[in-house]
Request: fold
Amino acid sequence: MSRRLLKSGIIVSAMTLISRVLGLVRDVVVANLMGAGASADVFFFANKIPNFLRRLFAEGAFSQAFVPVLTEYHASGDMDKTRELVARASGTLGVIVSLVTICGVLFSGAVTAVFGAGWFIDWLHGGPAAAKFELASLLLKITFPYLWFITFVALSGAILNTMGKFAVSSFTPVFLNVMIIGCALFLSPQLAEPEIGLAIGVFLGGMVQFFFQLPFLIKAGVLSRPKWGWRDPGVVKIRTLMIPALFGVSVSQINLLFDTFIASFLQTGSISWLYYSDRLLEFPLGMFGIAIATVILPALSRKHVDAQRSGFSETMDWGVRMVTLLGIPAMLGLMVLAKPMIMVLFMRGSFSPEDVHQASLSLLAYASGLLNFMLIKVLAPGYYSRQDTKTPVRYGIVAMVTNMVLNAIFAWFFGYIGLAIATACSAFVNMALLYRGLHLQRVYIVTRKTIGFIVRLILAGALMVAAVEWQLADMSVWLTWDLLHRASMLIGLIVLGAGVYIVSALILGVRLKDLKAATD
Reply:
């Protein structure tokens, strides 16, 4: 079992790596084009709404609700029944998402007024941010249809993942990045408002992703004509699981949207600085946290269907060990190298040294919660694979209220950095509650072996930080170097940190056998 999961995890991580690297290239191109000024704030705002929905569906509630039900149907061996479920689910979802998309396009101004309230208030009173509100409303009309495409990308990805075809859905996001990069390089420079070209890139990216997955669904033999099926038993089960899951599993994403709402009242550049920080956070989160969660959800669903209680717990334990092994150095590395990373990746064109400083502060705050974000991705499937969506909702409400209260407090004292701190704190609350619930239900209790494993990794991480700090030059010196010199030094520090972490972990007793589950 662990060998199969490890292989699937490597495939997903490899495909995700390609997508994340292209995502960084995309952000480098956008930073060079627009920096972190008003235009960048508006584009990132208009991109955040459909991007939030992408995470909600592709990596959140829909997959968490659909995969366990599809696994039940698929395990029965009746392909006709499975195809009927897919047809009913896709038809019902298609009608709903079409209505939502049409409303989003028609009422983009209202959406902007809600999530960009600071700009809306300025627009009402003729303030300096009035132009931001008007442009954001226009860009949302272009980017909102992305929701329609990405919903069906999520549906087809969930189907392919359930059948063990992880590579296709993991590679699909590459096309979004390619389209945005292409539009940034060739379309935006021809327009008076370059952010419009980027919004068109988002729209085209969603469309290409949609058409890319269709041949693989046809080959899998599960594609059939969509049908309305609101009262179909399978669809009823999916929506029953999905509605609370929309809230429960996506608390961190809703928190990021709330950050955007507060940031619209703060200084120009706040949304952009938070965006660039979040993008660097998303790299390890997608590479490791989401990749591992993607492969264990179908495995956990099968264990639950087969009533393998011990196998279920062992799969959870494997996921926690893998996440901590990769998450601890990723978290500490982002915190120690926040400013050098942003300097190397983004400081060119319209992105200034001041932008580097500001974005690095929010990255430091966000990164402190990275391990908790990753653990949430692994612990949440422990509920959804058992078709328990109510418990995570209760925990999600607590975490969300925590985030909102801390946002109001920290933003007052620390500005946009306070928003990142509040998000990291709420992630810890959510993670702790998810684990506590699994522990109380006797579904998953972290083993002594895993506790010892994590302690050794923390010690190895501390040694890694000490080694990197020892070799890290003052940032004023970094500013005098050219890009090649900075990049070489950054790569050297990353290699040094990784080397010290691996060697320290081995010396402290971490072995490959620690990554294996007890059963096959």
About this structure: Residues 3-248 form one domain. The CA atoms of residues 143 and 203 lie 5 Å apart.
